[in-house]
Amino acid sequence: MPFIRFLAENARWIAGGFLLTFFSAYGQTFFIALSAGGIRSEYGLSNGEFGAIYMGATLASALTLPQLGKIVDYFSVSRVVLLTAPMLALACMLMAWSHVLVLLVVTIYGLRLFGQGMMTHIAMTAMGKWFAAQRGRAVSVSAIGINFGEALYPLAFVSLAGAIGWRNSWLVAAAVMLLVALPAIYLLMRVEREPQSTVTRKDAPAVRNWTRGEVLRDPAFYLLLTGVLAPPFIGTTIFFHQIYLVELRGWEPETFAASFVVMSSMTVIFSLVCGGLVDRFSSVRLLPIFLAPLSVACFVLSISSAVWAPFVFMGLLGVSYGFSTTLFGSVWPEVYGTAHLGSIRSFIVAVMVFMTALGPGLTGWLIDLGVPYPGQIFVMGLYCIAASIVLFAVSRQLAARDASDGAEALQ
């Protein structure tokens, strides 16, 4: 099916998924980190202390998500949105009003759980269940909402905060969530798409529906996580400590903020490219290659202090992000089926949230201990190389397993 025709026929559901990921930005690290300087100053926190608070609140949200995320298997998407969006708006209000450290922890917990966690979980679970033969395209177009957010929000928030202050900017975010995002997403997704799970690629083997318990006992699942979660771990770490990195390198804050546009542009392009490749070849076959650009990106950022370095880093990060966002939504139904996808993905998203919590906390602690931040980034590049080797092995294992399962299904 031509791409334009696909978009036209599925516009409401794709647009709903796009808006879910676009407004998930309020709970994403890059958005929260835009207020990091003000938060550390007003609460008297060091990089390590704020990182520890952020890690603790995010870990709490990760522990909550596997239970909360299961509701997508039992209630309609629109009803889950009616719960999630107001709670995210409330967390934005708390960020503006809180002056007590305990409330700051509660605020970050709410932003991470309902923003990064539930908003993206709802979008990707809906696309995974509602699409099959065109799942890669559906996931890729929905997923780039966050990249549009990464392109638009940093400069917009910095400008708005300069005019009305960072706290009042969070009140504006809450108002937009309640008055714009909530009604738009609800109206788009209140009519659910007829499931297309029985329609697959012509060469795709039959996939049985795994339960979450079966998935958690599958060794290949954990090998997949080592690679698929590398981009959010690394990206979150860099974004969280962006103010420190800018000061360390002597860059202008506006320079680093502008580099987000490069990352977002590359992510959008390669997310769409990956969507087409997934529909043609499968997610599993693409796994071994998508971390290579990220490894180079880390090496560049760790070595160079040139003004062009953040743009090169962000461009290469965008390539891996583009592949990662699409693969993160498409590989799980491809490998484990769709019947229990909400339950399975809620656990996966919880692990992702855990990893994005670990990154800022661990690196902040190492910074306070005097471990050079560029050296830490270099090690991240080495990890990407190692993870690519692991993914190459596991992709071959999964391909062989799927072929075996398909053969048994035909007997």
Structural topology:
Blueprint: H1 3-9, H2 11-23, H3 29-32, H4 36-43, H5 47-68, H6 77-97, H7 101-130, H8 135-164, H9 166-189, H10 212-216, H11 219-228, H12 230-240, H13 242-249, H14 253-281, H15 283-286, H16 292-303, H17 309-336, H18 341-368, H19 373-410
Helix pairs in contact: 2-7, 2-8, 2-9, 5-7, 5-18, 6-7, 6-9, 7-8, 7-17, 7-18, 8-9, 8-14, 8-17, 11-19, 12-18, 14-17, 16-17, 16-19
Could you walk me through the main structural features you see in this protein, from its secondary elements to its overall organization?
By secondary structure, the chain is mostly helical. It has helices at residues 3-9, 11-23, 29-32, 36-43, 47-68, 77-97, 101-130, 135-164, 166-189, 212-216, 219-228, 230-240, 242-249, 253-281, 283-286, 292-303, 309-336, 341-368, 373-410. It is globular. The two termini are 31 Å apart.
Describe the global form. Answer: globular
Please count the beta strands (DSSP E, at least 2 residues each). Answer: 0
The termini sit apart by 31 Å
Could you spell the SSE succession in H and E letters? HHHHHHHHHHHHHHHHHHH
Low-confidence stretches: 196-203
Helical segment count: 19
Average residue-wise pLDDT: 85
Name a few traits of the molecule.
about 400 residues, mainly alpha, Growth Hormone, Chain: A, about 0% strand, globular
How do you describe this structure in short?
The protein is an all-alpha fold. It has a single domain, classed as MFS general substrate transporter like domains (Growth Hormone, Chain: A, Up-down Bundle).
